[in-house]
Amino acid sequence: MDGTRLPGAAVEREDRIILHVDMDCFYASCERLREPALEGEPLVVGMGYEAGQTHGAVATASYEAREHGLKSAQAISYALERLPRAVDAGDDHDGPVGYYRPVDLDFYKQVAAEVKAILHEHAEVVREVSIDEAYLDVTDRTSWKAIDGGERTIAEGYGRHIKQQIARQVGVPASVGIAPNMSAAKIASDFDKPDGLTVVPPGEVTAFLEPLAVDELHGVGPVTARELRAMDIETAGELAAADPTALVTRFGQRGRELYARARGDDDREVTPTGRPKSLSRESAFTEATAETEAKQKKITALAADVAARARSREAMYRTIGIKVVTPPFDINTRASSLSGPVDEPELVERVALELLEEFDDTRVRKLGVRVSNLVFGEQDQARLDGFETTDLSDRSVTNDQQEPSTDTNIKSLGHGGRITDWTDDESVESAETRRRGQSSLGEFD
Ligand code: DCP
Ligand code: MG
């Protein structure tokens, strides 16, 4: 990657490589793992099918059972009607029969853990969304570069490799979708189930979505699909070509989202399961520079990126910091803290630039911006009474290197905690940096 390339909300978004994995008829595949004779048979995993039981539901049906109309969430009594139990079917029964097994969640969780371990080996960021489903951001691990005379991308090979690793090491089938954003990747993984691998390179997302029925789009259930049909909108292509105002009139803010999804616009980030302690981003110069403007430009872009990521994760921050790496590898960190958590992209930029002033004449080879002391989504922005009127350009946000401000609304952290914070992360960062090369745009959280 070009070390001079600046990160920013708009930059690189379309180049992301998002991989979505969804295991095929997962509970049934797990049962087959310990009972290989069930391979190729119509298999129902669920509750309530034993003699004398009447209540219960299908958790999942193998693809062979699905051919008989069975699927998750159906009443078990319905399943038994369509596909009587093999053990109960008398000799005179000449229709299809099925195999039934009870749900053994502990076992499925063990299998899922093995699968997830493989996924974590193959991506920096893994978002586990359910027992058998995860998103991976594999942008740093593979490439959209076309190979084989343009027939395939390198990313496709990476997806195939992950599928094979799961099949060989765990023994269960997975379907994989790869696309530049999360919603397209999810649709892609579902596109060719079971054992599917569907790749939608950048630039092909709209064409891929176009022919799909609207209810295949993420977030479109049967009710919305019906309402869209009433508006003469049946396919994602028709939804993408619809009048957005009419959609907003009908569905409110959701209408705008539906419209965006149908057009393949989805800039949600793959956020790791669990909550991060901080969010940060750093970027190196190709060569160390003392140029103020270049440094400011980079800090501004990094600040925008970090603030956008915080917002997309619904994280507010109380501390804003920068990292300045001077040649050869001296790491300097500075941070300022506010009295309450905020979601203020402009403030991140302003504080980061202020903190940078100390390094005005310094040659710098790498810069980073971080927000920390995170608070997630649950409450409104803290009432920072007086905050808006405080003149931030004039010492109201204090540099941690200086005496804490006496301002009651904005105060500084002590040295110790902050420095330790960053030091901890440095060890992660140096390993990362070694692996990716110095010029890469690495995250340092
Ligand atoms: N599950 C359940 N009840 C449901 C839906 C699902 O108990 N109503 C369980 C059983 C599934 C597992 O969750 O095996 C994963 O759900 P999926 O929706 O991914 O379904 P499958 O993996 O079974 O099938 P597919 O191949 O369509 O992904
Ligand atoms: Mg599944």
Q: Which descriptors apply to this entry?
A:
445 residues; alpha+beta; 20% strand; 15 helices; single chain; binds 2'-deoxycytidine-5'-triphosphate; five-stranded antiparallel sheet; disordered C terminus
Short description:
The chain has 445 residues and is of the alpha+beta class.
- List the strand order in the largest sheet: 5-6-1-9-10
What's the SSE pattern? EHEEHHEHEEEEHEHEHHHHHEHEEHEEHH
Helix count, DSSP H or I runs of 4 or more residues: 15
Largest sheet report: 5 strands, mixed
User: Uncertain segments of ≥5 residues (pLDDT<50)?
Assistant: 1-12, 379-445
Estimate the global geometry from the Cα principal axes.
elongated
Distance between the termini: 20 Å
Ions, cofactors and other ligands present here are: 2'-deoxycytidine-5'-triphosphate, magnesium ion
Care to count the β-strands?
Answer: 15
- Beta-strand content: 15-25%
Give me the Rg, rounded: 26 Å
Roughly what percent helix?
25-40%
The chain-level structural class is alpha+beta
Mean pLDDT: 82
Characterization of the model:
The protein is α+β, with helices and mostly antiparallel strands and 445 residues long. It is 36% helix and 20% strand. The protein has 15 helices and 15 strands. The chain has a 5-stranded mixed sheet with strand order 5-6-1-9-10. Strands 11, 12, 13, 14 and 15 form a 5-stranded antiparallel sheet that branches. The protein has a 3-stranded mixed sheet with strand order 3-2-4. Strand 12 and strand 13 (330-342) form a beta hairpin. It starts with 17 loop residues before the first strand and ends in a 9-residue tail after the last helix. Mean pLDDT is 82; it is low at 1-12 and 379-445. Bound molecules: 2'-deoxycytidine-5'-triphosphate and magnesium ion. The site of 2'-deoxycytidine-5'-triphosphate (DCP) has 15 residues, from strand 1, helix 1 and strand 3.
